[in-house]
Every structure is written in structure tokens, then in C-alpha cells.
Amino acid sequence: MTLQYPIYQIQAVENIPSYLQKLFLIPIEELKEFGFQPCCYLQVKPMIRIYPNIAWEILLYNKAFNSYAKVGIRHQIEPVHLFDVEFYTFFADKTFLVTTNGKGDTVIGRIPHFILQDCYTAQTSLQWQLHKGRLRQLKTNKIPHTLSASAFIEALQVYLINYIDSLVKLKHILAITNKNLFHLNAKVALKLTYKIIQEKQKSTNIIKQRREQAKKDTKLLTEIPVELEVEGFRRMEQLQRGFINSKLRPWLLLGSFALFVVTSSRYFGTQTLIIFISALIFHEAGHLLVMKLNGYRDASLVFIPFLGAVATARKDDATITQKFCVSLAGPLPGLILGLGLAIMFPDASYSWVKQTSWILIGLNLFNLLPIYPLDGGQIADILLFSRFPYSDVLFKGFGVIIIGMFGVVHPALFLIVIPLGFNIVHSYRAATINSKLQRHIGKNLPNRQNILHYLFKYLQQFDYQKLPFNSRYLLIKNLMGRYRCFYSKRITRVILASVYCGSLLIGILGIQTVVPNTIVKTSADYVHINREMDE
């Protein structure tokens, strides 16, 4: 989380995007029932720095209660819970009464001069009643003070800037050099995370209640403009890119490595464990190197106890060739090295050389098999199955079954099966839309700059806007990935498929050549390995 000094500016109506003017009519009509009238539009640089760095809000005023209502759009774009409403009353003693809805868990410490109350309700009317009730109590010793819209905005901005400064003095947030930006210190970040997790269920209940209400009253279901959907998608992409801070990655690597060593030492002897970890690092280093060469960002390596390791990085516009090279760069070098050692030392007695060759061959040949989510399965998916609706759903389902069967012997594999099952759900939704979309546009796919806008617009023809935004995000991401594969050149796919099949064939033939010459001599050695693992 990055914080910044907030800035509020009153804007003329003509400066507001037309789709937002139309959208803000919904809360305006609702708040008019409580006596509020629109004052002005606001261009806001929010306190939490997030894409886009400029937001739009509308300010309304209730003369009878000397109160303002400030309405913005929530970052989690949900059709039934789209608008963020806050009520403000300013007093002569220069304090603010502020009533928010579902935002109290994000407040750090205390905001000076704010009397803050937060409610979790599915009805704006209940939030306004809470504000009026507290206002009546405070009127016994405080006098509400009338402020013009511009004076109110100026006071609010000054108070929030002072709030940022107070957090700096308390060392709750730390300044980022020469940027007027701030980030949380570790202790505060952990406390805030715990607080958000505790209150998460309340926010979820609000959305559930509003969905139930929307079934009876369709007015509660807001049709989200395509521009807002695209903005939310890009914001999610930015959040994913910064999910793990670069300074934390080395610690994450070291921590996961230590945990992996501790859990694996029960099953492997010292020499076997060293060789196995070295083979894993060699495998993942191949992925990371090719990711780096192809312009991937946010690369990281994490060890997974009982399973192995995984290299991750991001490139949203990666081509089918780049994805192929990244997937193949892990198993192929290790397989070649393992076969090379086995061929060069065919008659060697049991030693670290022979053990290394077998671990390299076994690990990397297994990874080359066309079983999702192994490297070979991902290659098969991008070259063939993702091009055709429903075929990749069946392919991934086959992968779940195979991994699940292995899980009977090695239960830790069920840690892969569970997320794979959820992935199949998103793949099925994408396949349903993709089958219709392919017939709709044929091969006249919009250019890359407009594809995101086009896909969200096409989704409006279905009921997919009722899905949670995270599900819509994964759905669009899946569709975009499919079309990058679908519109790749046929000759490119043929060449890549030939390289993959050749690599797999070399591995199979190579191991068949090596095994007959060594199977008898090594049978006793494998008994020794199994005993070592048991010990």
C-alpha cells in the first residue's frame, strides 16, 4: 500500500466523463429522498495511491442538517454495491462528524478532529439514520457550522494532509525519498491486514444482502459502464504486478527454501536432498533466464514444501512463442544434462553422478509430459487446447484426475488439485463465451488496444456482470489469453509443436537407451536409495 497527500478540486460538469455523469444520477436520486441536493463534481487524488491516480466524486448538500454527502465509486466494482457514500457535518469547534460504510477497517490509528463512525449496512438509509442519530447527540454541546462547498473541500483536504503528517510523526508510515509518497511500516501493515481480515465477512454480508434485495428490486442492480470495467481490470493488473515487494522476494525465497529443506529432510538423505534441490534450482533457473530474456517482470522463485519449486513472472502481452520458450526452458536443459551424464558414465558404480543423472531425467521428463499444469501440459494447452472452446476444460479436467491419482500416493499433490479445480470453473465460463464469441467476430479481432474494451462490451450481452469482479477479471484474462493463442500463425504453432514433440521423444528414447544398460546394475542401488529415504 502506497499513501500520498490527497488533493480535491471542484470541476465543471463538462469536464466529467459522460458515462460518469450518467452513472452518478443513481446515487443523486437516492440521496434526494433524504433531502440532499447536488453541489458539484470533484476531481480527487485519493489518499491511497492506486490506478488510476485520479478519481471522480460528487458532492451533495443537505441544508436542513448542515451536512454533506460525498459519493465515489468503490474499487471493487460490484453492480449491487458500486457507490461509496460518506456523510459529513462540520462543527464550529472545527471538528468533523463522519459516517462511512464498511471502511473503518482501513483507518490507521486516529484521524485528528474527526468523530468517525463506521457502519456495515446494505442500505444507505440506515447509514444516514446513524449519522443523524449521532448528530442529535453532539448538538447538545456542539454547534453545526455552515460551510460552502469550496470551504468544505478545503477543510477536508487540510485535515487529511494533517492526518498523513501525524502518521509520519508516529512512524506508522515511512516516507519514500523525494516523492511525497509513503508506505506502511511492517508492524502497522500486519495489524491492518489482521483488522481487514476480521472485518471481511461483514463486507461480504453487505454484498450478499444487496444481491438478495436486487432479486426483488432490479433498480439496485447497476449496469456498469464498459469504461469502468476496463479501469477496474487495469487496476487489478497493477495490483497483481506489485503483489510481492521486490525487497521481500529474497526473504520469501530464503524462508520457503528453509521450510522445504526441513520438510524434505525426513524423506531424503543428505546427498539425495542436495542433488534434488540442485536439480530443482537448475530447472527453475532455466525458466527465470528465458523470462528475463523475453522481458518478463516481477520474477521470483519460491520453494513449495513436499512438492518442489515454482518460478513466476509477468508479461501480460506475452506471445505464444515466448510462453512456449519459458515453459520448455525448465525441463529441456535438465533432461539433456541428465541424459548426457547417463551416457557419459554408463558403467559407473553407484555415485552422486549416477544419482544426479537419474534425478535430472526423472524430474524433467515427468515435467515434459502433456499433463496440466506441468510444463508439458502448459505447452500442449497454449499450442492446441486453448484454441478450441471446451477442449481445454476437458484437458485440465484430465490433469486434475491424473494429479489426483498421484495424490493418493503423495497427498501433498492435493494442494495442486484444489486450485486446479477452481481454475476449471473459470475456464468453463470462458469456454462458454468463447464459443459464441468466435462465431460472432470470426477472424476480425479488434486490435490489441481495443480488445479489452471489446470483450467487456460483449460480456454485457450475458448475465456475467452479476459475477463478483474478481471472477469477471479472471474470465476476461482467460479470454485474452485464448485469443493470443487463437490468432497466432499456423506455421508458428506447427514449428513449436514439432520442437516439443522432438524434445519429448528425445527424452523417452534417451531413457529407453540408458535403462537397459543400467537397470540390472542399479536395482541394488535403488534399494539402497529407498532405505536412505525411509531412514
What percentage of amino acids are in beta strands? Answer: 5-15%
How many DSSP H or I helices?
Answer: 16
Count of DSSP strands: 12
- Silhouette: elongated
* Spatial extent as radius of gyration: 29 Å
Average of the residue pLDDT scores: 85
Characterization of this structure:
- This protein has 535 residues and is α+β, with helices and mostly antiparallel strands.
- It is 58% helix and 14% strand.
- It is built from 16 helices and 12 strands.
- It has helices at 18-32, 124-138, 149-169, 186-216, 226-241, 249-264, 270-293, 320-328, 331-344, 352-368, 375-383, 391-409, 414-441, 448-459, 469-486, 490-534, and strands at 2-4, 7-11, 37-45, 55-62, 67-73, 83-90, 96-101, 114-119, 173-176, 181-184, 297-304, 308-314.
- The strands form 3 sheets. Strands 2-3-4-5-6-7-8 form a 7-stranded mixed sheet, sandwiched between helices. It has a 3-stranded antiparallel sheet with strand order 1-10-9.
- A hairpin with a 4-residue loop joins strand 9 (173-176) and strand 10 (181-184).
- Helix 5 crosses helix 14 (448-459), helix 7 (270-293) crosses helix 9 and helix 8 packs parallel to helix 16.
- It is elongated and about 95 Å long.
- The two termini are 47 Å apart.
- The model is unreliable at 519-530 (pLDDT under 50).
